[in-house]
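In the previous chapter we treated chains in isolation. Here, by contrast, the input contains two separate entities that must be folded as one system, with a combined length of 1137 residues.
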Amino acid sequence: MEPKQESITRLLHELSAGHRQAFDALMPLVYDQLRKLAANCLKAEKPGHTLAATALVHEAYLRLVDSDIAWEDRVHFYAVAARVIRRILVDHARASGRQKRGGASEKIQLDEALIAGRDAPEAVMELDDTLRRLESQDARKGRIVEMIFFGGMTYEETATALRLSPATVHRELRMAKAWLHRELTQSASSSS
Amino acid sequence: MATNVPPSGDVPDRWRRLEAIFQAAADLPQAERPDFLDAQCEGDAKLRAEVESLLASSAETHRFFLGPLRAVARDLSEGEDANLGRRIGPYRVLKTLGEGGMGNVYLAVRADRQYTQEVAIKLMRTGFGSSPAMLVRFRTERQILANLDHPNIARLLDGGVTEDDAPYLVMEHVGGLPIDEYCRSERLPLENRLRLFLTVCAAVEYAHKNLVVHRDIKPANILVAANGEPKLLDFGIAKLLDPELGDALQTRTAERLMTPEYACPEQIRGGPVTTSADVYGLGVLLYELLAGVRPFRADGKDQFQVARMICEDEPVPPSAAAADRDSAASIERRRLKGDLDKIALMALRKEPARRYASVGRLAADVRAYLNGYPIQARTDAWGYRSGKFVRRHKLGVVAAALAILILVGGSIGMAVLARRATREQNVAQREAQFLATMFQAATPEVARGRTITARDLLDQGAQRLDRELADQPEVHAAMLDNIGVAYRNLGMPDQALPIAKNAFELNVKTHGAASEEAASSLFTYASLYRDQGKYAEAEPLFRQLVAIRRKRRGAKGVSLAEALAALGECLYLENSDAASEPALRESLKIYKTAGPDYGDDARDYLALLIERKGRYTEAAELLREAVAIDLRTKGADSPDYANTLSNLASNLLDFGDYTQAEAKLRDALAIRRRVLGNDHPDLAYPLNNLAFVLMEQGEAAQAEPFAQEELALRLKTYGRAHPEIAAARNTLARVLEAKGDYIGAEREFREALDVVNRTVGIGSYLGAQVLLNHSVLEFDRGQYPSAEREARESLEALRKLGGENTPYVASALVQLAEDRFFQKDPRDAVPMLREAVEIRRRELPAAHPNVIFAEVRLGEALVRTGELRESEKILRSALDDVHSASFTLAPWRIAEIQSALGICLAAQGEMDQAKPLLATSQAALRSDPHPTFRKLSADSLRQMN
């Protein structure tokens, strides 16, 4: 059942060498493991500014990958994991959104999303949609957002994964965040 | 949505251009952006609008995006218990021990220590959300439970609230079997079962003496270790974790509804839960240990039916329910018939008043059975016939009723722990309300035809206590203690004092002078003297309290810290600053080791103390910490928060930022009005300060109603002869004086001085200040010699109190200099003003109103002595300071500088510069509360014209 370590390592290596299709091959291999880990790790988040995704990804990494692969390969693993976590969260948001519309009794939950007057699953789906639109005109910014917000990656790691300088990551993220925020708040206000 | 999708075709280009402009603009300071955008967008309004909207959005933090992601992540983790491996406080969760309706119980270890102590953590499923009141209740109740120290009660070690608002309790981890399983597996004979039961009873009795009801006695909560020692778990926790219980007096928790077989009828009906509920719970336990089955069994019935059965059906005697043969679960029927049947059924009666009056009596009967003595329990009908029985159980009702006063509300019991009990009047009223309902039920003949007030109840309660609890000194002392606190909470210190004294003495007699019982009643007793302003009486009592808590082994550091803080405050109030500071510092030190949520009181008092020495910045820091603690632990609607906020406002006053201070004061006042109503004594401080700040801002007319309201409130609370009355009259007098009502001002000052002479004396800070302020009035009325005399007397007193260099001394110097100055002795005035300016510059931030005030006077005096250059220099720099200050000064203060500078320039013959300065200052000077200055300025202008 467990994906072979060497196959993952090999795929990561290919990814580092620029074979983009390796990314898609890695996704399903990482997905199961992450999904299993997600439940425990995501909740243990600290009040810092990242998701507990960092812990989650590192845990998955330890289980899936040879410990002594090159830094670049490791970073590519994080990048794959970020995409996977995004998918896991969006899938779950979609599922719980359905449940809610199905008329199940409403759970009172206090979190930032509700405080902000937004429904969390819906907000996550919206973020995903908006992120897709960002990717369609500026794929690099989309990847940066994905790695940092969903994957809990540092600027340094993100920069390595994308072969950029951390300063560029910083600037790109500034624009991406501003654009996403504007899009999200505009659509929220126009739909209400 | 129109801007969402960029026009096709030139997407990349336009996007690139958009980004380039955005990034460049984002690097610029706000102010430079519009021009930059004008230049870059070259009339492309749409592009410009888009960049602007992006800039507006760029300030957004990660939180905006991560919030929903976290929420979904959290949701995803539910079901697969995500708490495993999680850190809760300093503990790391290892595994699940049990699951319950309100939350789960986990095995955990301390994660931040070398040694690994295993503990059980009960984590509540849902948080208290936005209710700080609930949180306060939780914390204080937790404190009460933490004080339970008995070998057969699992200790509550710790507790807190997680980042996501869920309260948790950390308890001693107990191994062993539930008591019923233990009896079964050990095939324990009858005698051993009864002895085990008696051990359980003793633990429950101990808790009752400490005013804690278990509420949830059942085999699962009593674990027996391999050595045969039982331990009770979850004492009082049902209530602790269900805040609604405390408030609505409801006992129907989710858990109850799921397993009602152990509930007593009053719990099911939602009646008040007293110690009698535990008598019932022990009855169920005894029944089960004897018969091997519970008195009421669900057996496939729905919950409603079970509940009804418990409330209406008589249980069959244990002997009838027991299995026929001597099975492992039960005891032979034959041995249960008679006494044991009677004992179990008496404990299980529907009406609490007809059960055993206490756990002790239940235990006594079991012991009597074991020893072959006659038992007290009778079959049910007997009770109705026997007047003797009725009398006895009535006593039980009163005792139980009073116990509830403590148990249910909690806050009265905890008021002993909470230093500022006075401020919890709203809680006290709720308690009293509850008491009212209860007493109406207990003594209908009293209630008939008239309304019972909380006070009636307390009066009655106090009387009944002496009469009916004389043979139970421990309960008697505890009740007295709580009635004393209740009186105090209701703002009736005169009634409270003798009762608190009585409680203290009784506690000393019963528990010993070094007991915590004695200490906590001593706290109330001492605080009452403090409330009355009798600091000299309070001080030795607080010292005694500190001594007890210092000596007490196992006493929580926090309670010593609390005692030290109270002593420190008392010494501060007595002006014994030198003795107060070490007490407060020690208190703060202990609090700091206890954790970041402790010590708002010590910080508050210490800030007041060091403000007296002019160390405002240090004080401000302490106050901001105290405000944060109160907001965090007590909530934005709490009286304590309002209190520290108000002190922070005073600090801002001292800092010179009157505008911000006014806003904070209005906040504090609003909270207090909302929480405490309009008649509560604690409105007085913000009222006083608000009156002061408005007066200082030149709004004397606005200030007056606040000053009047304060005085009225103080009079109602303290009568006529209390230092606080002097302080309130002093403020009112100053407001009236600023309004020009000298007659009214004189009247208030006279009254204030009269009170001062009868209480703290002129040699106190308060006395010296009132005298000094009166000398200002004398001065304003042109009575220079008497003004000077008073100012000198005040100066002398202030120097004696705090040394040469306090802001108070500076104030006296300024006034004395003014007196000399207007007696045509400017040469005398100059050195005093120099000293005052020097002190104030040293002690106060630049541009503080008091610095400016003294500088203006010095500038004036220097004009008279012909030192025009220096005068001009001082006044110009004052003007610069004012303009560069981080806060805004009242217009009249700026006008004073302008006017003084105008006079100085005129004396130098610079009429062209002087005239406009004097002319423009006249309008703002109209609100100057110092008429002499107004006159001086107007005269100078007139002379020039």
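Confidence is low (pLDDT under 50) at residues 43-51, 99-118, 188-192 of chain A. Chain A is about 75% helix and 0% strand. Compare these points with the single-chain example from earlier in the chapter.
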